[in-house]
Each structure stands twice: as structure tokens, then as C-alpha cells.
Design goal:
single chain, 342 residues, alpha/beta, Rossmann fold, Dihydrodipicolinate Reductase, domain 2, 8-stranded mixed sheet, 6-stranded parallel sheet, 10 helices, globular
């Protein structure tokens, strides 16, 4: 392995520039290749970021011995195929969310990377925002006492044109779902990270507005393994999109925050004020507004996890939790029953 970690990006869609910027913004990384079945898109990104090697077939890219790691930016339903191939080629992997769209595929991905002794990290930017980290530390310090309620409200807007912009959007086969699997997966990951794992869920989901086969609106009631309850809402149907908000309640206090910062920070028998944090760039109405700072952190973390031989910040096992919960929500909505998670 050279002094710099040599990366390639697989996939040249909307999120790929965030991957390229994060790699090129790291002094320990070098971006040497990109692949996409639509080779014209890959070529444009290669020109924009001065990437020397362009491929239409990612399998050919993986044959290069001057690539140490790849980032995965293909549609969600193709994640497992590409990650497994990368692992078998001996490449470390940073995979865009969701990890994949089926439980079996995620198991195969994780097993392939463990067997090949390569790192598998998953991008969940909300975990590294300042507000999320501060809230997590407050919970771990016991400031809220026994946790009672943990809610995630993710009311985004996506236009009909958004779903028409790519044939895979809004499909079960490739997108894996709608408002939850594509947009809401970030907040679902975060609320579990803050509150702890979920024990069971009961849910409704449907396409109430958009002409798509997956959901544009969903609501779920969850029970966490620690005994607390919670509500998860996710949409692409409401106009205008709202700031994503997290409400955390315990017997001794409440923390509420959204993309602009803390809205409430109240601890019993304390005059402690809400910490000042940097606001987060919101993509509530437009996916092109997704902030890049999280990708910088996850690329750097993957590099350090390789050098230190440790799991990435969000490992495959950790990254699958949000998808497992979303799949349980879909099962509950279809069956009309409460679903227990493993």
C-alpha cells in the first residue's frame, strides 16, 4: 500500500461528486478512477475532478492493482453486487446509504468483506453532525435519566420530476422503497443510534400523492429494547419540506433539535442552556443540497480504520440496522401487524 490511500468511485450519479470532493479533500487520499455504466457521466466527473482512469465496467476498474479502496455510489439495489465484487478483489469499501435493500444481501456483503479481511463502512452523515454528537453525549451522561420517548420526524418534499429523473427511483426492485429507504434512512439510523435498538414496530405506509409503487408517506410507532417508545414519520409528499427533527424525552429532561440546531434543551434541576452548534445544510426540498462535510469525515475514517485495523465509524453490522427497521416497517404496513425485530 502506498503512502496515500488510492481510491476509485463506482457510480457517477447525484451523490458521486460528494464522494469525489471528500477523497480529493483528504491529504492522505488520491482519486485514481471512476466507473459508471453511463460512461459519459463518468467521463464528465473525471473531467471535473481530473480523475485519470474512466471505466464503463466496474469489474475492469476493480482489476487495477493501484486501487486500495472504493466508494459505492450506485443505486441502492446494486450495492451488494458491487461491494461483494470489491471485497473479492481485495478493495476496502465505503458504501453510500442504505447498505442495501434486503436483509439477505446485507448479510452477504458483510460476510464477503469479513472473509476478504477488507473494511466495510457505510455513510450516515447525521451521526457526525455537531448536534447529534452533543445529544448522544448528553444521553450517555445520563442527563435525561431513563429514556421515555424518542421520535424522528422527516417530512421531505420530492417533486414528480424527481421520480421521473431516473428509472430506478421509486421502485421496489432498485430503490428498495421510497420516503423511508431513500430519504428517511438517515434519520432512522440516527434515532436508533441515540435511543438504542428497536424491539418492535407497527406502521402505516403508502403512496398518497406520487404515482410511484413505493411509499411517499409513512408513520411508525416503535418500542425500543430499553422500554422507551417512539414515533417515526417519513415523507416525500408534503410541501414544503420541513426541517428534520428529533425529539428525545427522558424522566429528567428533553432535547429537541433539527437541522438548524437545538430547539429545546431542558434538564430538571439545572440551568444548563442549549449548546450552540453549527446548522446543517438541509436537503428537505432538493437532494442536490446534501451537505458534503459528512463524506469528508467518513472517507477519513475509512483511511484511519485501514491504517489502525479497526472497524469503520459505521460498520456493515451497524449500517444494516436502519434497513432492518425499515424492512420491518414495510412488513407491518403490509400485514397490519406489529413486527418484532431480531
Amino acid at each position: 500500500m502506498s503512502e496515500k490511500m488510492r481510491f476509485a468511485v463506482i457510480g457517477a450519479g447525484v451523490i458521486a461528486p460528494s464522494h469525489a470532493k471528500a477523497i480529493q479533500g483528504n491529504s492522505q487520499a488520491e482519486l485514481v478512477g471512476i466507473a459508471d455504466v453511463e460512461v459519459e457521466k463518468a467521463g464528465k466527473l473525471a473531467a471535473d475532478f481530473s480523475i485519470p482512469h474512466v471505466y464503463q465496467d466496474y469489474q475492469q476498474l476493480l482489476k487495477r492493482d493501484d486501487i486500495d479502496a472504493v466508494t459505492i455510489a450506485v443505486p441502492s439495489g446494486y450495492h451488494a453486487e458491487v461491494v461483494i465484487a470489491a471485497a473479492q478483489a481485495g478493495k476496502h469499501v465505503l458504501c453510500e446509504k442504505p447498505l442495501d435493500i434486503t436483509a439477505d444481501s446485507m448479510t452477504l456483503m458483510i460476510d464477503a468483506c469479513r472473509k476478504a479481511n477488507v473494511k466495510l463502512g457505510c455513510v450516515f452523515q447525521r451521526r457526525v453532525t455537531e448536534a447529534s454528537i452533543v445529544a448522544k453525549k448528553a444521553i450517555e451522561a445520563g442527563k435525561l435519566g431513563k429514556l421515555v420517548l424518542g421520535d424522528a420526524y422527516q417530512k421531505s418534499y420530492r417533486s414528480p420530476q424527481y421520480y421521473k429523473s431516473a428509472g430506478w427511483r421509486g421502485t421496489w426492485a432498485i430503490d428498495g422503497g421510497g420516503a423511508l429507504m431513500n430519504q428517511g434512512v438517515h434519520g432512522i439510523d440516527l434515532i436508533q443510534w441515540l435511543m438504542g435498538d428497536v424491539q418492535s414496530v407497527f406502521a402505516y405506509s403508502s403512496a398518497l400523492v406520487r404515482e410511484i409503487e413505493v411509499e411517499d408517506t409513512a408513520v411508525a410507532v416503535v418500542k425500543y429494547k430499553n422500554g422507551a417508545f417512539g414515533v417515526i414519520q417519513g415523507t416525500t409528499s408534503v410541501y414544503p419540506g420541513q426541517e428534520t427533527r428529533f425529539d428525545l424525552h427522558g424522566e429528567k429532561g428533553t432535547i429537541i433539535f433539527d437541522d438548524t440546531g437545538f430547539k429545546q434543551w431542558k434538564i430538571a434541576d439545572s440551568e444548563e442552556e442549549a449548546p450552540k452548534v453549527e446548522p446543517r445544510v438541509s436537503a428537505k426540498n432538493d437532494p442536490s443540497h446534501i451537505a458534503n462535510d459528512g463524506h469528508f469525515i467518513f472517507v477519513d475514517d475509512l483511511i484511519q480504520s485501514i491504517r489502525e485495523d479497526r472497524d469503520p465509524l459505521v460498520s456493515g453490522e451497524e449500517g444494516r440496522k436502519a434497513v432492518d427497521l425499515i424492512l420491518a416497517i414495510y412488513e407491518s404496513a403490509r400485514s397490519g401487524k406489529e413486527i418484532m425485530l431480531k
